[in-house]
Each structure stands twice: as C-alpha cells, then as structure tokens.
Design a protein that fits this description.
- The chain is mainly α and 923 residues long.
- Strands 2-3-4-1-5 form a 5-stranded parallel sheet, with helices on both faces. Strands 6-7 form a two-stranded antiparallel ribbon.
- Helix 23 packs antiparallel against helix 24.
- It is globular and about 110 Å long.
C-alpha cells in the first residue's frame, strides 16, 4: 500500500509520460530497507499502460552468476536481437550464453543492451524497473549503466531502486537520484489506521511509533502485532537501525516454527534461485521434505508456488541466513552443491566454495573453471571474484598466486583498477614463481602507466623486464616498449633511452612478429625523442609500420594498431602509416573496443589536427575525453584535453582553451605527465600568439623551451624555437631570434624530416636579407608539400607574404597572403585569418570579413553525428559507431538541421565537405 508518497508517484507519472512522448528518463530511488522502494516500482509497473515492462531484481546470492540480472531483464526482448548491430549482437549473445564465442571489450555488452532496448520500443514505449540494483552482478550493472547513460530520445523510462549506503551502479554517475525519506506523522497515522483499524487511536502512541520507526513503512507493517499491547506510557524501543529491528522480528517469528521448517527456510535462503525441485532434492539429501515450508508460508515468511519459493521481503532471507551458525550454513551449501546438475556448474562451484572449511582443492578447481567460463562471456567482475575465491581455497602456493593474478587481470579488464592493484599486491607477497612474477609485474606496470603516476609504471616495467629476460624474451620486449612509452609521456629522455637500449639484444631469429614490431617502434620513438642524429629512428618507425601493414595477424589487433597509428605522428609524413590509422579505428569501433578507444581516438584526432580535418579533430578529441572519463583512463584524458586546448588555441577559442589546458596541466602534475604539461604550454603560447598577446605567448613558449632543455628532449617537432624566432623579432630582439634559429636548424637537420625542415627554412626567411627571401621560403614551401600540415603551410605563406610586403613587393605578397587566408578560413583558424587579413590590407587589398560558421553552434556530439552522416553513413551505422541508439542519432540530427538551417542529407554533406570529414570512421 502506498501512503504518503504523492511526490514520488508524481515523479513516476512524469517519467511514464516522458517515455510515452518518445523521450528517455532515468531515475534511481534511494533509501533504507523497507522504506517503500519496491512498492513504488510496483506502482510504476501497474501504471505503465500500453507499455512493455522489463523487470529484474538484484539478489545478493546471484551476484556471482554471470549476467544474471541482465538476462532476467532482457529475456522478453530477446526476439528483437536481429535488430542489433552484428558485432554488438554477438557480444550480447555470448554474454548471455545464447551462443559460443569469445569475450569482447566490457562495454560491448552495454552497447548491445542499448541497441536491444531501443529496438524493443518499435511498437510500444518501454518501462525498465530494476529492484535492489545494488545487488546486481557487476557485469550486468556495467552493461546497464552504459546503456542508461546514453538514453536520450528513446521511448524508455528507467526506474532503479538502490539501498542507501550500499555501493551500486549509480555511484559517481550523473544518474538522477531521489532519496526516499520516512513517512511523515500524518502518513504514519494513516498507515497505522489502515493496518490496525479501531485498535490504535492514541495520538501519543502514533507519535511514538512515528519517532521510533522513523516513518519506515516496513517497520510499521512488520511490527504491527506489538502495537495493541504497547503501554501508552512505556517508551517504544529505539528502532535505529530500523532494518536490524525488523530483521530481529523476522528471526523471532522463525523461532516459533518447528525445527524442520526452520531448516527448510535456511535451505531456501542459501539457494540462489528458489527453484522448488532443486530445494526438494537438497531437502531429501538432508532428510527433510518441502512440505515443511507450509508452516513458514502460513505466518507470511515465504510464498510457495508450483516451482519456486520466494521470501516475502529480502530482509527475511538475509535474517534467516545470518541467524544460522557458520557450520550449518556450510552443510546447507554442500547439500545444494550435491544436487545441482552439470548444466548449473557455476552455481554448484559457488555452493562448493561456500560449503568449504579451509583450503579445498576440489572446490577451488570447480570455482576456477567457473571463473574461466565467466571470463569467456565477458563477465569480468564475476570472473575476478571467482578467481580470487578459488585462490583462497587452493592448497598450493604457486597455484594460489596464478589465481590471484587471474583475478587481478580480469578485474582490470572489468575496469576495477583499485581492486586489480590490491590483488596484485597480495599475489606479490606470496613469493610467486618467476613466470607468474613476470605476469604480475607486467600488469602492475601497465596499470600504473594508464592511471599514473607514469614514472612509477616505467620503473615497474623496467624491473619486470629484467625478470622476463630469464623466461620470456618476447614479453620482456613488450614490457620495455611500454616503459619507453611511459617515459615519453613523462617527458623523461633518459628513461626512454635506457629502456630502448635494452631491446635490441632481446630480438633474435625466434622472436615473434609482435616482439619484432615493438622492437622497432619503441627504439625508433626513443631515438627521435632524444634527438636522432642519423635518421635511424625514423627508419625504425617506418619498419615497424610496414611490419604491421604486411602481417594479417598483427593488423587485426586494435591495441597493437593503436601503437602503429603513432607512426605518422612521429614522422609527420603525408602517407606513411595512414592506412593503419584508418584500420585501427575501424577495427576498434567494429569490435566495440571501448577500452582502447580513448588512446586511439585521441591519436587519430591529433593526426586530423595535424592535417586539414580540424572539424573531425575537434569531434575526436571530445569523444576521447568522454570515453576516457567514463573508463577512468586519466593518462589518456590528460593527453586529449591538452591536445584539444592546442586546437582551440589556433581557433581563437580562448575560454575553452584555457579551461582544458588548466585541467590537463593539473592532471599532468598529479600523474607525472611531463610531456602533457609541455603540450599545455604550447597551447597557451599559440593562443597568445594568434590573439596578439605577444608577451603572454613569449612567456609560455620560453617556459616550454626551458622545460624541454631541462629534460634533455631534443625532438625538433616539439621545439617552440620557430615561434621564439618570430616573437623575439617582433619584440626587436634580433640576437635572441638568431640564437634560437641556429639551435633549431641543428635540431631540424638532425631529424631530417620535412616538417621540421620547413619550419627551419621559414625562420631563415624571416632573418634573411631581402635578396634571399625567396630562396628560403620556397625551400620551406617545398618541404611543406611533403607533409599534411596545411596550417603550418599557411603560416609560412603568411610570413612569406609579410616579408615580401616589407620588401615592397606588394603584388607578390598578395598571392601568398590570399593563399594563407583561404586555408585559415577553411580551417576555422580565426585569429590567424585576422592576422593574414590585416597583412593583406597593408598591401592595399581587402579580404572579405569572415562569416562565423553556423557549425560553431553545434555541440560536440552533434558535430560527431553530423560528420558521420555527411560522410554517407546511415543512421544505424552512426548509432553503432558512437554507441548510441538510432533514435538518439535522429534526435541530434534534427538539432543539426535546425542550427544549420538545412533540411536534407545532401545539404548536410555540402556543409561538411570531404576535407572536414575524418578518414577513420567505420563504414
């Protein structure tokens, strides 16, 4: 009965109305046990007229069953699976054990869940109700949260209930929550009157019942029998916490039952399904009969149907189980394990584990197999706990270490970094065998490099690689490559060099192609970063990219492809490795490999920004930032924020640039990401330079230069000296400009790559006498032609035009300035367009003032969707790519049309010409 819940029922009515109107709404009802959460769910379900209703309930005993909650919820909708994108459909079918297959990224099941929920709205709105969501198995919780957070324009209302102070899927999210308080005094009086009729009339007793129960409806209902006998002068026994008092009342009620009935109740409480035939077999094993449950049913503790036994409230189950002795509970679990068939091997394994007293190899082995089956389905949270418990039951220390490592590895795959680290520490302190110790140190180092501090991860990987030298040279190579990468992000030249120099001795005729790839790209990166003097670094990077490009087995690994995608960024050449970039992003999206996407998408966006696809780059950076926040990958978050700030600096978006640079720099200092801090200074320097705040620009570039020098970073591509040449000249400091030119020319010649050579030639043109202008600037433009960076080319033309104007060659200057203006205009580099326009005006020619693009009004997500659809993707393809529903895509598309003032896909494609579109979206 719902008394005193008008505010909550109005909230639920609004949610249902939203869904019927084609809009999504999600709310979590949070409160103590017995506060009325389940009753409100029943109200929502009863009032969901004309809607599909999907229901699930988390149970403490099923938290170790892979995707138990998700299967219960989605079962009525499974006939719509054919409408889900194929890779996601396969992931969901494997997760729910509907087909054999291998596990995919943990978010693939969430994306499929979203697709299935959306498909289920085809003929009616949908109400999703999940009771006791805090008890969902972790894998179901992850999948549902992924889906619920992406609901926008689907006719779906979601209502969850969560017990207060219990960890749940809504923790740390933006899911709307509504806290249920106890009933007020008036509602308490009304409920008491309904329950007791004329027996309770005393205002004093009502007052004490209200204060003593906190208005908790379950406490008022379950303790109703005590009311008439409660003296009006005696204080009501305090009921805080209310759940404990109610549980005690249940225990007292159970105590009145005959012994067989109490045993049957305990058996039902220990069961995780309430399946009556199974309980009957287990009861027979204990010398009992299920008929003894009649007495418990008679006093309202359970409900018995033809095939199930259900407790009337979860508190009854937990009270019965907690009241039994540990030895009796173990006996009950062993009885249940003895009657479960092979088809329920996972449940049997857990009952064996719960029935074990001390180490038990049989239970450990059974649970290990259950863990492997869970992992194969992508139920990483369930698998991790199973591996951990199997380790605790193992007799052999070596096997225990292996199982603890497996628990940690699976926890990391499931996004539980803190748990993974704790399990690895436990395994380390058990003196594992050397081969297991190598695995442990590799994972420890990998986690530290992804979450920070990266210098700690670098050292762990170096030390671990020394261990790996003895047992697995291929793994040692990979660990050293990861150490090189960690040192790169830390801006640690010595660390990169030390790790890289150890790799060549580990590569031999028996090395795998994977090891050969890492054995080339990591030393190549280190040589370039440290200031490669003979071009060997670039050669190694090219070799690594070629190796992946020619190896089918390597070219199908999205994580390895993410490494290979760095090749073009290190070389800044027009063609090298760009097909790998496209392949990497395509495979990652097709497989819903969300875990690798923050790293990969941000690097693709860097590549787009280094060319002429700035619109795509902005969309990519925003996507990488969102995914990195969602997956907890703070290193990738800092990188994407810094690089977005750099792009926004060139667009003149000062507030956005400073905000993102500030957040990136804060993370960089916390995580030891020295390189990211350098990138933020580059962004702020570019911002000041473009906006004409020359003192600010000079200060930021000088700080950046000082950090590079202090760290010994010699890569010409990171050097701000070309900017320092120009800024010092504008400040009248020709000697300083000349010194920076000499320094940078040496770096550019050492690297030998066209991007650095072009920038050096531009600087020479700035300082050259008038009769040598053309030679240097034409050399710069010829080098620019070998790179994809049209912005730098336009900057060279701007500088060239300015020098020609000052040399009184105005007609020739206009040619260069018009070309620069056209590029800046197309890119949206507004401050630089203004600089070029001003320079052109000084030659006597006026450029049309740039109209701000209506594209600037689009949100990041609208921009992503517009780009995809403009490139010819269908609505369904765009939805699969961005892990959204088709209706959400259509919702955002309507906003895009409205903001751009267009009405068709043809007009959309015209608004986003091919140069704006990313080359790496899945088709």
């Amino acid at each position: 009965m719902l008394v005193g819940r008008d505010r909550e029922t109005s909230l639920l009515d609004r949610l249902l109305a939203e869904a019927r109107a084609g809009r999504s709404a999600v709310v979590a009802l949070v409160g103590d046990s017995g506060i009325g959460k389940s009753a409100l769910l029943e109200y929502a379900a009863a009032n969901a007229t004309g809607m599909h209703v999907l229901r699930a309930r988390g149970t403490h005993s099923e938290a170790h069953i892979p995707f138990a909650g998700l299967f219960e919820l989605l079962r009525p909708a499974l006939d719509r699976l054919d409408r889900v994108a194929p890779p996601q459909r396969e992931a969901l079918e494997v997760a729910l054990a509907l087909r054999p297959g291998r596990a995919q990224d943990r978010f693939a099941v969430g994306a499929a869940t979203l697709g299935l929920l959306s498909a289920y709205t085809a003929d009616a709105p949908v109400l999703v109700v999940v009771d006791d969501a805090h008890w969902l198995d972790g894998s179901s919780a992850d999948a549902l949260l992924f889906a619920f957070r992406r609901l926008v324009a689907d006719a779906i209302a979601v209502v969850l209930t969560v017990r207060e102070d219990e960890p749940s899927l809504i923790d740390g999210t933006d899911v709307e929550s509504h806290r249920l308080e106890g009933l007020d005094r008036q509602a308490t009086a009304e409920l008491v009157a309904r329950l007791a009729g004329d027996e309770v009339r005393s205002d004093d007793l009502i007052e004490r019942l209200w204060r003593g129960t906190g208005g908790n409806p379950l406490a008022l209902i379950e303790l109703a029998d005590d009311w008439p006998t409660t003296s009006s002068n005696a204080p009501l026994e305090p009921l805080l916490p209310v759940g404990a008092r109610v549980a005690r009342a249940y225990v007292e009620r159970c105590a009145s039952l005959p012994e067989p009935a109490r045993e049957l109740l305990l058996l039902a409480a220990a069961s995780d399904t309430g399946d009556l035939p199974t309980l009957a077999k287990a009861a027979a094993h204990l010398g009992l009969g299920v008929g003894d449950l009649v007495a418990a049913e008679a006093i309202g503790l359970v409900i018995v149907t033809a095939d199930r036994v259900e407790f009337r409230h979860p508190l009854i189950r937990s009270a019965v189980y907690a009241d039994a002795s540990a030895d009796r509970r173990r006996e009950i679990h062993r009885a249940l394990a003895s009657v479960l068939p092979d088809a329920e091997a996972d449940r049997r394994a857990w009952h064996l584990a719960l029935g074990a007293l001390g180490p038990d190899d049989a239970a450990s082995s059974a649970l290990e197999q259950a863990a492997r089956r869970s992992r194969a389905r992508g139920a990483y949270d369930v698998a991790s706990h199973a591996f951990q418990r199997a380790g605790a039951l193992a007799l052999d220390d070596g096997r225990r270490c292996v199982l603890l490592y497996s628990a940690a590895d699976t926890a990391w795959l499931g996004g539980q970094a803190a748990r993974a680290v704790a399990l690895l520490e436990e395994a380390r302190h058990r003196a594992p065998p050397i081969d297991v110790a190598v695995l442990i140190e590799h994972l420890r180092g990998h986690i530290a490099t992804r979450l920070g501090p990266v210098d700690e991860g670098h050292q762990i990987l170096l030390d671990g690689a020394r261990l790996a030298d003895e047992v697995d040279s291929d793994r040692a190579v990979v660990m050293l490559a990861e150490a090189v990468n960690a040192a790169f992000y830390a801006g640690d030249v010595d660390g990169m060099r030390d790790a890289a120099e150890r790799i060549p001795s580990l590569i031999g005729p028996t090395s795998s192609r994977r090891a050969a790839f890492f054995g080339a790209i990591a030393p190549g990166m280190a040589l370039i970063f440290c200031g490669d003097e003979d071009g060997r670094g670039a050669t190694l990077v090219r070799d690594a990219v070629t190796l992946v490009d020619l190896s089918d087995d390597l070219a199908d690994d999205p994580r390895l492809l993410a490494w290979a995608a760095m090749g073009p960024l290190w070389l800044r050449e027009s063609e090298v490795g760009r097909t790998l970039v496209a392949r990497a992003i395509d495979i990652a999206r097709r497989r819903t490999a969300v875990g690798v996407l923050p790293f990969l998408v941000s690097h693709v966006a860097i590549d787009d920004a280094a060319g002429d696809r700035w619109v795509a780059a902005e969309a990519g950076f925003h996507e990488a930032i969102g995914l990195a926040r969602e997956t907890g990958q703070r290193t990738d978050l800092a990188v994407a924020l810094a690089r977005l700030a750099w792009l926004q600096a060139r667009q003149g978006r000062a507030d956005d640039c400073r905000a993102h640079a500030t957040e990136a720099r804060t993370l960089a200092r916390e995580l030891g990401l020295g390189l990211t801090e350098i990138w933020t200074l580059a962004a702020l320097g570019d911002l000041g330079h473009g906006l004409g705040h020359l003192d600010d620009a000079l200060a930021h570039f000088e700080e950046m230069h000082a950090l590079l020098v202090a760290r010994g970073i010699g890569d010409a591509d990171l050097s701000p000296e070309p900017e320092l040449v120009e800024l010092n000249l504008r400040h009248g400091r020709s000697a300083q400009a000349a010194a920076h030119l000499a320094s940078f020319e040496k770096k550019a010649a050492t690297k030998g790559q066209p991007w650095a050579i072009a920038r050096a030639a531009r600087c020479r043109g700035l300082l050259a006498p008038d009769d040598e202008i053309d030679r240097h600037f034409l050399e710069a433009l010829a080098a620019h032609d070998q790179t994809p960076d049209v912005f730098e080319t336009a900057r060279t033309r701007l500088t060239y035009g300015g020098r020609l104007r000052r040399a009184r060659q105005r007609v020739r200057a206009r040619t260069q300035l018009r070309a620069a203006i056209a590029v800046f205009d197309r890119l949206g580099a507004t401050p630089w367009w203004e600089l070029a326009r001003t320079e052109l005006a000084a030659t006597g020619e006026t450029a049309r003032r740039r109209d701000l693009s209506t594209r600037d009004q689009l949100t990041p997500q609208e921009l992503q969707i517009a780009l995809l659809l403009a490139s010819g993707r269908t609505t369904r393809e765009a939805a699969a790519t961005l892990f959204l529903s088709p209706k959400t895509i259509e919702y955002h598309l309507r906003n895009v049309y409205r903001k751009l003032g267009i009405n068709s896909r043809t007009e959309l494609a015209a608004a986003f010409p091919e140069g704006d579109q990313p080359a790496t979206f899945v088709s």
